[in-house]
Design goal:
Number of strands: 0
Strand content: under 5%
Shape: extended
Low-confidence stretches: 1-31, 33-45
Structural class: mainly alpha
Order of helices and strands: HHHHHHHHH
Mean pLDDT: 76
Largest sheet: none
Radius of gyration: 21 Å
Amino acid sequence: MKIIFAGIFALFIAVGAQAQTPVSDSTLMVADSLQREPQSESESTARPAAISPNDPEQKIADIKKLLATTRAIEIGLQTMGDMIENFRQNLPDVPDSFWLEFADRIKTEDLWEMMIPIYDKYLSHEDILTLLEFYQSPIGQKLVSVQPEIIRESTLAGRAWGEKIARDVAAELQKQGYLQAFQR
């Protein structure tokens, strides 16, 4: 039964598990080795007077601005750092040098290149510009500043919820006699 329960438990909490552990010095070293896309000083935050729906290059540039403004890549890196820290704690015999070398192979450009087409697919250029206006406003900046903690705490809440569901499923499976079939 322990094996079945562990499997169910892992299924429900796989995503949230990485957010439970505090950040260690080695995680900070790993996070420091992850690079952000350089920001151009010439990028303007002002909305253009006219939007050309047939200018895909400008839309991509504005998507990049939105990702930078919302710190989406930074949040992704935070999650990656948390995940690596979780692996590190669960594999204590693996030296920190392994995790640092692994982190060096992670290129944030890959994350940028994966996210841009997703934003492009679901949001019009007008949507992107409207979101930029919001995220550059005082309330948008407040959301950006607290969003990493909202995500972290929401992940922990989801993990607790998943753990409860896993316990309930395991108890019901045992009550109905399904777990005994796997214990042979």
